[in-house]
Please model this.
Amino acid sequence: MNETTKINIPDSIPYPTPLKRSKAPPPFPVGCLPPVLKKMVELISDTVQVMPEMPASVALSILSLCIQGKAKICYSPFWSEELNLYILISASPGERKSPVFRTLTAPVHQFTADHNEMYRTEILSYLNEKKMLESRLSREIEKNSGMETVNAIQNELDALEPKHFMRLITSDATAEALAAIMGENDGKMGILSDEGGQFNIMAGMYNKGNMTNLNIFLSGYDGDPVQIDRKCGSHTIMRPLLTFGICTQPIVLNSMISNTEFTGKGLAQRFLYCQPESLIGHRTLIENYPSGSQTIMEDYRKLIYRLLAMKPPDRSVIELTCRATDIFRDFAAKIEFQMGDREQLAEHRDYFSKLPGKTLRIAGLLHLCEKEPAECVSAETTENAIEISKYYGQQYLSIVCADNYDTTPQYLIEKILDKARKNNFSRISLRDIKRTVRKLSEDQIYYALDILTENNYLSEIPVVHDGRAGNRRKESYEINPHLLLPGAENIPITTI
Model:
């Protein structure tokens, strides 16, 4: 293509119609949260000046922390889910992550402190007695005492009822340290932090690049037994359960999703992701809490205390009502269809195949905020869980597919034009388009191409078949020459 060709554009070739600026991914459906959580999320959003999805996601992770291990939710005799979540929130420095975490985790920390103070004497007595018996046992073994004496001491040790100081949250830990902590906490733990150091540990950043053993993190999602091997022996955690609620920087989120070890073993697919819109530059200073704030925070504290104090019921399986079952089945069937070949989610099966299960988990958490485990999950609660789940699904797509999932036409034409200007061509094949935007699915590419041809950014070149055997159909597109004129790169593609 020479300069003359670029300048002499026939009048019959129309100028591209500016694309309407696409909408951002849908906002978090705050109205789908139980009233106590809804009010608390809105209060934090207004006073801290953050988008609601940040406190909402942290609140869901805290529900998970409080409830995990106390019940399961069952769709059928063949499918049940634990009630813990893995959530990762992406936010840059200065987004006020710390105040959000500090406010929402405060009741958890206070409950832990109250419990440990109440049982302090009993716990210390147990630890002292255990230490004394272990010392006696060691001395008798060293003296080669008879098996009768050794067994008697061992029986005393075994008869002790374990008592430990409660610990519900850690900010980061190696797999070995985490397993030890969980072993003293009935197999449960929460990794909640406003920093992403945990993923650096898991990726081996502090271990000479050697990837951490991920078994505890994988088993901790589904509650599958995991064996912990140590120098002094091994033990099995029969039902390990973890909660992740981490707010980290975008670079950490991207490395998480792109880490082949994390994706290959299915760890990355276990997470719900969100990337709240930044409000920096639009925030105002809040001098006083709004009216009724104290009541809202006290109601939230009572909810967290109730859930933490809740004992696993005799029948710890939550079921859905008939109507709720129908609603969930329709939702799961739609996801299944969209994962089919050439459908919207075909390129993201690994992630979206787990979304229905996450939806059930969310439904169980929402249910126990207001109801007893013996009651069935209502249709309304199921619908709310689906809306929340759909939000996280859109967030995932917006993160992994393009700068914004809903701006794929703009994203695609910008990539095509950048390549055309660098390599001086005016035509591009469909195959080259796919190579240029590998992170878009075929469905997204075809959708974007339809929009771009309708608005005169591209024109499809008719396919010519020469009739020879084995001839492959070669689709290609002509770039509107107006977009290749000198200075055209400064013309915005979208309307304001």
Summary: The domain at 30-117+166-400 is CATH 3.40.50 (Rossmann fold). The chain is about 50% helix and 10% strand.
